[in-house]
Every structure is written in structure tokens, then in C-alpha cells.
Write a structure and sequence with these properties.
The complex is a heterodimer of chains A (668) and B (121). With 668 residues, chain A is α+β, with helices and mostly antiparallel strands. Chain A has 16 helices and 17 strands. Chain B is built from five helices and five strands; from the N terminus they run βαβαβαβαβα. Classes of the chains: A alpha+beta (668), B alpha/beta (121). At the A-B interface, helix 10 and helix 11 of A face helix 1 of B.
Chain lengths: 668, 121
């Protein structure tokens, strides 16, 4: 601690204050003394003059009487012993008997003394036995008295100054000794404490307030010292905590970084497993990460050959070509003494911390290659051994738990990869089989269409020829049977066609052949082919068509099939009344409807008429035959044209089947 | 002089039906059972009309039609394709191959006859 710039000693301040007071008192006293003295001097001067005059009145009558002027002169001269007397004269009448001036006052003209401020001028008659013998005049100068007075003041002042100085010095010495020095010492101690020196005790010194202060300062020093040691201890503790904390943070950070790396590796592996079906690539990635994270020197993934009951090297990382070939030649079996053999038996990871401590190891090449520490993890999926993951390190020691856990995870990924690959192989095989089966089915369908219908065509052809009497006249009875034969044959043909169509739809092979067609012609064709059927049932067959319709584009054979189906159904289910085909154009679409006066369809059945294998359940409909496929096929065909088919009907009020299709279909 | 019709058909029953039907109507019938024979017979006999089955052993009906139509002196012969209904797109293919008409199986002899008579009229 440094003293402030305007440092002033306490002792000096105290002395100054003390001296100030003393000076004031002294000055007051001195002043009073001077005033009193000045009054005293003035009256004393008058008294002295009076005494001189009195002395003159006693001493001078005789000489004056005797006219002894010498004596008078002597007396006058003697009066001048008083320094204040500046002029003396003795006269008798007008006659000057004696006169004398002071050394500095050679006044001829005695009127000079008339100034009462400067001089006191008095005269007195000298009597001899009652007779006036002369007059004495004495002048006293106040100047000399003044000078004395000034002298006195100077003396007093000097004395005062001396006293003040003495007091000042004394008090200075005293305060220095008893206050300033102890205080200074205390200050030094305090300063030393402030600078951190807490060991040196504060000297008590005198047994007074300052001593007390020193005692308290020392107490303070001890307190601070205690406090300091406490703070120091706390600080050390905090530093220790801090160090521990830093270490913990370091450890955690490292752990976190490792976890992140692990996660990244796992993510990478998972991604490879998820995105690649190349088993070699996936397992390669897994074994690489396994080696890197277990800080091993090499690693191998084996798959387990269930048939030969041995492990086969699938992929490796970080091992020499030579070693790999050696391993391929070796037979690692489940349950043998190798790490993998043991792990596969136990169903859990097995590690060998130091190969060189083992008396023997089934795979000599591992030892020869310089590997010391092994960790083997079996790959087991649903109790089935599918392989093994082994990492190897060239220096001895246990693998950390983290590495073991991680390898566990990698093992799971490997299992997944192997399983995926197997599944993929299976799926590929199934796919091949399926494609083969599908091809067979298609071929079968094509053959069916030919093989089933060829004999049926022949039957129908011959029947028709007989009925047309190509082979001669046909008796009426036989003709009737032949017509039944023909009708049933055609029915069978339509059933076969329906089933084939449905098979094609299911196989996704049902396609449209688009071409231009005339809807009017199409309807007329259908009308012509069903007219005879309607006539047989005494139904009135009607058409309600515009004079002209635009040329459409679509699959006319399929559309014909749809319309034939609708009209055929209408005729089939209608016993009396009429069947009417209508067509019109509505917003670039053909709208075709087939209305009948049949029994109608109940509300419940309306929603299901277009479903496959569906026929309205009722005794009357059962008798009508059919597969129930026609409408579902019709619906499919219309939908493939980008159209819509629907029915409006009510029991007892007939049915109207409608479809609308775009006039021009560019692709199905 | 009666018109001659070449029937290219591997199915015996179909051939018989066509023969019985057409001969009863006074046509002269030439029958062959495969595509190559059909082409040969067309060159040799130069019939008025050919009923060409599509599914044939050896070259199929389309190929046979193309070969016949490629011969300048045979190109004028009417060829009606007779094919299976189930194979959608046959009509298109038949017309592209050069067929003049198309009859889908199962054909009604009456319908077939109507078609033939229309072409030969």
C-alpha cells in the first residue's frame, strides 16, 4: 500500500492543531499585555515627569535663591538621566537661568513641543520660603516611551514565537514518539498484511489505544490468515473438483465420441445391410467395422454349412491371402476347441486373451500368423447356427466389454444380411418357379381355349349341318333334339369362354385390341344374333338408335361380348314383354342401355350383380343357368375402356343395364 | 364352272364340316393340312378363295397368307382367316398379314357360308 500523494504526518497535524490553539491563546495574551502596558507606560511617563518636577521644586529653590547657576545647571543636566526628558529650562521672570535640550532635540523654539501626542510639556513654580524664585519647565518625549513599548512588544512577540516553536517541536516529538511512530508501524503491519504477509505478528507496542488497535489488527491478521487458509483449502478442493470434473468430461467425451463412431459404423452397416443384397459386400463392411472398432488386426466372417457341418470362410478383412487360404483348407467344426467352435456350442461370444498360454490350438495357422487374442461371436438365428464372426489381434489381452457388445450387434447385422441373402435367393427361386408356373398356366390357358373348343366346334358344326339338311332330310323329332343339342353346345361354349376370360383377367393378360368401330353396326350385329332367341320366347326385340353415330375407337369384339351378355341376360330373364337396346351420345361418350320387362332386381342384389360368380339367389334365376361371370367380365371390359356400367331396377318393374364409354379410347 | 376353294385346316373335323357344307353348295374343294402345303396348293391350283386356319403346324396361317399375297399372280385370291376367338388381336393380325376376311371360331357354318358367298359374289 503506498502513501497517498498528499500525505501529512499525524504528529505534524496534531502539533499544528495544538500550536494553532496555543498561538491563538498566546497572541490574545500578548495583545492584552501590550494594551495594558501601553496604558501603564503612558501614566508612568506622566508620573516620572511629575517626580522630576517635584524633585526640581525641592532641589532648586536654594541655588536659585543663592543665584548659584552652576548648581542649577548641574541639576538640569542630572535630570537628563531620564532618557525621556528632552528639554528642560529654568526661568526667573524673563531671565533664562538654565536650559538644556536632549541630544536629538536641539529646539530653540520651545513651541515645537506643543503637540501633546508626541510630548508632555509641564511647568512648575519654584518657591523659596514662599517666594517664587523661578519656574522650571520640563518636556518629556513620548517617542522614547513608544520605542520602549515597541521593544517590549518585540520582546513579547519573540518570546511568544519562541514558546510556540518550543511547544510545536515538543508536541511534534511527543506525538511522533507516541502516536505517529506506533501508527506508522501499525500502518506498515497493515500494509504488510495487505500485501499478504500474514505470518508476522503485529507488535502491540504501548499499552494504549494504539496498542489496542495493534491487538485488534493482529486479531484481524489472524482471522484473515485463518480465512485465507480456509479459502486456500476450499480453492484446492474446488481445483480438485474441477480437475475431477474435467477428467470426467474427458472420459464422457471420449465415450460419447466412441458411441457416435459406433453408431455411425452401425448406421453404415445397417445401411449396407438394408440397401445391398450382395452378401459379400455386406459382410465385408461388417467385418471391416468389427475389426476397426474392436481394435483388432484382422477379422473373418464364416457361414455355417448345415450339410457338411463345417464353417466356411465367407469374407475377411486385414488378413493375408496365405492365411485365408490356410483357413479355407482347415475344417472348423461346431464344438471343436477353436474359439469359433466353442462360441457356436455355447451360443455366446468366446474370447481367448492369449493363444500362447494354451498348450495347443486346433488351428495352427492362427498362431503361426502371429495372432494372440481372439474373439469369436456365433451367428445364431432362431436357434439355427448360420455362421460366426471372429476378430483377431496380434497382441495379447482381453477384448473390452464394449467391443464384445459391439461385435454382438455386428453379429446380429451379419445374421440379418445372411438371412436377407438367403431370403432373396429363396424369393428369386420362388420368382423363377412362379414365372415358370405362370408361363405354364398361360400355355395351359391357350391350349384349353383350343383344345376345349375344337371338339365343341366340330359338334356344333356337324349339328348345324344336319339341321341344315346337308346330309339329307331330318325327321322332325330328331330336328328338335338336334336343336337342343346345338343350344346346349353353344351354352357350354359360352361357359368355357367366360371361364377363360376370367382366368385371363386374373392373370392380368386380359387386354383390349383397339380399333375403329361403328356402334350402330355393332348393335345391329348383336340384334341379329339374338333376334331368333327373342322370337323363340315371344319377346319383342327393339332398337332405339339415332340415325347416325360417330365412329368409335375401342375393342369391338369385347364390346360386342358385353352387349351380347346384357341382351342375352335380358332375354334369358324376361318371360314376357320386350327387350330394347338404346344408344346415344352424351358429352363425347356413348351411352348404351338394355331395358327389359323382366322380374327386376331387388335393392339388396343391385350392388352385387357385377361381382364374380354372383347370380341372384332365387329359384327362378337358378333355372336360367350361367356361370354368373358374364356381368363381372362385362364390367371389367367397360372399365378397361374407361367407362362405367350400372343397373337401375326394381322388383316387378324390369331392369335397365347401362354402360357409358368414351367414344374414342386411345389406350386401355 | 364351279368356284374352287382351298381349305387350309389341320383339324379333320373342321375340314369335313367345311367340305360337306361347301360341296353341298357346289364348290370345288381342295384340302391341305399345313401352311407350306397351303402355299404350294395356292400356287398350283390358283383357287378362287382360301379358308386359312391360323393355328397350323409348321408355318402358321399369317405366314402362309403373307407368302401367298407376296406372289403377284396369287395376290388377287381372297383369303379368309379362320381363327380362335380367345386370342384377341387375331383379327388385326390377320388383316395386317393380308387376309381379306376374318371368321372367328366357333364359326357357324351358316355364317361362314354367308361370308364366302359375299366375297365370291
Amino acid at each position: 500500500m503506498t502513501a497517498p500523494e498528499s500525505f501529512t504526518s499525524v504528529s505534524r497535524r496534531l502539533s499544528s492543531a495544538f500550536v494553532g490553539v496555543v498561538t491563538l491563546v498566546l497572541l490574545i495574551f500578548a495583545g492584552l499585555a501590550i494594551i495594558i502596558d501601553s496604558a501603564k507606560v503612558s501614566s508612568e511617563l506622566e508620573k516620572r515627569l511629575d517626580t522630576a518636577l517635584e524633585l526640581s521644586t525641592v532641589s532648586l529653590p536654594t541655588p536659585l535663591w543663592n543665584l548659584d547657576n552652576n548648581v542649577v545647571d548641574d541639576f538640569i543636566a542630572a535630570l537628563f538621566l531620564d532618557s525621556a526628558i528632552v528639554y528642560a529650562e529654568v526661568v526667573w521672570g524673563d531671565q533664562l537661568i538654565s536650559k538644556k535640550s536632549g541630544e536629538n532635540y536641539n529646539y530653540e523654539d520651545s513651541s515645537e513641543f506643543s503637540d501633546p501626542d508626541k510630548f508632555i510639556d509641564q511647568s512648575r513654580d519654584i518657591l523659596f520660603e514662599g517666594n517664587k524664585v523661578g519656574t522650571i519647565r520640563l518636556v518629556m518625549s513620548r517617542e522614547s516611551v513608544k520605542r520602549e513599548f515597541i521593544l517590549t512588544i518585540i520582546k513579547i512577540t519573540s518570546l511568544t514565537v519562541f514558546i510556540i516553536a518550543a511547544i510545536f517541536l515538543t508536541s511534534l516529538l511527543i506525538t511522533r514518539k507516541y502516536i505517529a511512530q506506533p501508527l506508522s508501524k501499525l500502518s506498515e503491519s497493515a500494509s504488510s498484511i495487505a500485501l499478504g504477509n500474514l505470518e508476522t505478528p503485529v507488535d502491540k507496542g504501548s499499552n494504549d489505544e494504539i496498542g489496542q488497535l495493534a491487538v485488534h489488527l493482529d486479531q484481524m491478521r489472524r482471522s484473515i490468515k485463518d480465512l485465507f487458509s480456509e479459502v486456500h483449502a476450499s480453492k484446492e478442493q474446488i481445483e480438485e473438483y474441477s480437475r475431477t470434473l474435467e477428467q470426467q468430461v474427458d472420459v464422457r467425451t471420449r465415450e460419447l465420441a466412441q458411441s457416435v463412431e459406433e453408431l455411425e459404423a452401425l448406421g453404415e452397416v445397417s445401411q449396407v445391410v438394408g440397401s445391398s443384397l450382395d452378401l459379400g459386400k455386406v459382410l465385408g463392411s461388417i467385418v471391416r467395422h468389427a475389426v476397426l472398432f474392436s481394435e483388432a488386426d484382422g477379422g473373418i466372417v464364416f457361414t455355417f454349412d448345415q450339410v457338411r457341418q463345417i464353417f466356411a470362410l465367407k469374407t475377411s478383412y486385414g488378413v493375408s491371402q496365405n492365411f485365408e487360404e490356410e483357413l479355407r483348407r482347415s475344417r472348423i467344426r461346431k464344438g471343436d476347441n477353436s474359439a469359433l467352435g466353442q462360441a457356436s456350442t455355447k451360443g455366446e461370444p468366446v474370447q481367448i486373451a492369449d493363444l500362447s498360454t494354451l498348450a495347443e490350438y486346433p488351428l495352427a495357422c492362427v498362431h503361426q500368423e502371429g495372432y494372440r487374442a481372439l474373439l469369436a461371436v456365433p451367428l445364431i438365428h432362431e436357434d439355427e447356427l448360420v455362421g460366426g464372426l471372429v476378430v483377431m489381434r496380434k497382441h495379447a489381452g482381453t477384448y473390452p466389454e464394449r467391443a464384445v457388445n459391439l461385435l454382438h450387434t455386428f453379429a446380429a447385422q451379419s445374421i440379418l444380411a445372411i438371412r436377407n441373402a438367403r431370403l432373396f435367393e429363396e424369393i428369386e427361386e420362388k420368382g423363377r418357379q412362379l414365372a415358370q408356373a405362370d408361363k405354364h398356366k398361360s400355355e395351359f390357358l391357350a391350349n384349353m381355349s383350343h383344345e376345349l373348343r375344337t371338339p365343341l366346334n366340330a359338334i356344333l358344326g356337324y349339328t348345324e349341318l344336319i339341321l341344315d339338311e346337308i346330309y339329307g332330310e331330318v325327321p322332325e323329332k330328331i330336328e328338335e333334339v338336334l336343336k337342343r343339342l346345338e343350344k346346349n353346345g353353344r351354352h357350354l361354349l359360352s361357359l368355357i369362354n367366360d371361364v377363360l376370360d376370367l382366368s385371363k383377367i386374373e392373370a392380368g393378360r386380359f387386354t383390349l385390341t383397339l380399333g375403329e368401330y361403328s356402334l350402330i353396326e355393332l348393335i345391329q350385329t348383336v340384334y341379329t344374333s339374338v333376334d331368333s332367341l327373342a322370337a323363340e320366347k315371344n319377346l319383342s326385340m327393339k332398337m332405339n338408335l339415332p340415325e347416325k353415330l360417330p365412329i368409335g375407337r375401342g375393342d369391338d369384339q369385347r364390346l360386342t361380348q358385353v352387349l351380347l351378355n346384357l341382351v342375352g341376360n335380358a332375354i334369358k330373364f324376361t318371360d314376357q314383354g320386350e327387350v330394347c337396346i338404346e344408344a346415344q351420345v352424351e358429352d363425347d361418350r356413348f351411352l348404351v342401355s338394355v331395358a327389359d320387362t323382366g322380374p327386376g332386381i331387388s335393392e339388396d342384389d343391385l350392388s352385387t350383380v357385377f361381382r364374380e360368380f354372383h347370380q341372384i339367389d332365387g329359384s327362378s334365376t337358378k333355372q336360367k343357368g350361367g356361370t354368373g361371370l358374364g356381368l363381372s367380365i362385362a364390367k371389367k371390359i367397360i372399365e378397361m375402356h374407361g367407362g362405367r356400367i350400372w343397373v337401375t331396377s326394381a322388383i316387378g318393374r324390369g331392369s335397365i343395364f347401362n354402360f357409358s364409354i368414351p367414344m374414342r379410347v386411345e389406350n386401355s | 364352272m364351279s368356284k374352287s376353294i382351298l381349305v387350309v385346316e389341320d383339324q379333320e373335323d373342321n375340314r369335313r364340316i367345311l367340305r360337306d357344307l361347301l360341296s353341298s353348295k357346289g364348290y370345288e374343294i381342295i384340302e391341305v393340312t399345313d401352311g407350306l402345303a397351303g402355299v404350294e396348293a395356292a400356287k398350283r391350283e390358283k383357287p378362287d378363295l382360301i379358308l386359312m386356319d391360323i393355328q397350323l403346324p409348321g408355318i402358321d396361317g399369317y405366314e402362309a397368307t403373307r407368302r401367298i399375297k407376296a406372289e403377284p399372280d396369287l395376290a388377287g385370291i381372297t383369303i379368309i382367316a379362320v381363327t380362335s376367338y380367345a386370342l384377341s388381336g387375331d383379327k388385326q393380325k390377320a388383316l395386317e398379314a393380308g387376309c381379306d376376311g376374318y371368321v372367328a371360331k366357333p364359326f357357324s357354318p351358316r355364317q361362314l357360308l354367308a361370308e364366302i358367298e359375299q366375297h365370291l359374289a
